[in-house]
Amino acid sequence: MVALGRRDTLRLAGAGAVAFVTSSLLPNLALADSASAAKAIKKIIGDKATQQGRITLELPQIAENGNTVPIAFEVESPMTEADHVKAVHIFSEGNPIPNVASIRFSPASGRARAATRMRMAKTQNVIAVAEMSDGSVFMAKAEVKVTIGGCGG
Fold it and tell me: Are residues 18 and 72 in the same domain?
């Protein structure tokens, strides 16, 4: 039997911690799919029916580098007190956490438009869901082909 020194014990403990964290994260990556995105959308909008239209998504068809994929959207709305966009939620079907962003608007916003960047691990659909002041919900979807994944892929 060989006695372990302090450094060897710390190395083993560190390796065990890394193995534990890695094994607990990897199963979540396997769950990244359209069903998890649909579940996240339902959590926000409930059983409301979604409609097509009013949302314009601006995404590249092909993203050469998934580390930084530009995304922009605009929702057609008069942005008055009686008729305005309350929020737009962005979802990604292939990322481990499907909720990418939620942007809130008010009539004072003047326009329901925003732009950002997101990281994408693989080719996937990006979904925008707009909640309107009258309770209606609009949805738009676009696919982005990723050639080099931004999440270690």
Answer: no
List the one residue out of 90, 48, 40 whose CA is nearest residue 69. 90
Cα 114 from Cα 91, distance rounded (Å): 15
What is the mean predicted confidence (pLDDT) over 27-44? 75
3-37: b (≥16 Cβ within 10 Å) or e: eeeeeeeeeeeeeeeeeeeeeeeeeeeeebeeebb
In the chain, how many domains are there?
Answer: 2
Backbone dihedral region for residue 85 (phi beyond 0: left; psi -120 to 50: alpha; all else: beta):
beta
Residue 31: its pLDDT value, please?
46
What is the reported pLDDT for 125? 94
Domain hosting 100: range is 33-146
